[in-house]
Amino acid sequence: MTSSTDTLTARQQQALKTRQKLLHAGKETFLEYGFQKATISHIIKKAKTGYGTAYVYFKNKDELFMIIMEDLMNEFYQVAEMPFTPASKEEALEQIKKQVQLFLSLAIKEKEMMSIVKEAIGLSPEIEKAWYDIREKFISRISLDIRYAQQNKLARLNVDAQLVARGWFFSNEMFMWELVQNSTHYSLEEVIHNLTTIYANGLYE
Question: What does pTM read for this prediction?
Fold first, then answer.
């Protein structure tokens, strides 16, 4: 079977390798220096490429970082896109609890990079906008799960799925940042139990 890279010319394959090298070097640089102190010069030096090379692929470090951030968030999307087809409130609670556990555990596993994401959101309007778009993607996916539960007469019909989804994501996001930054005295298990219990009892019949 032919892979997508096999159809590229030698020049295109080299360009792809250079871009990946810059992204890898970029991630290492951000982890070493943090977002604010990292520079394109640091990244170029680590990638061992020519000075102007980085600007062929990325207009600035913000754009390079956004691609790294989006790659990281794809791991979180896999959790959000897990099949959600409960037949009862109990099944819904178990599936929701599992998603929250995987979501927050992944944030803790990637806490070094997530801390830099948090820093970057506060410093770069471009990255703040990119995070807003990521957040909206999660909210849209959650609202689909809520509508499924409503259509199957599991969840209350007198609530707006999109509005509830927003509140649910923001609750998870708040605890995600607290766990990443070690700013909560609650354990992961306590957060998961209380979040899912309040959410499920408020939404499900």
Answer: 0.88
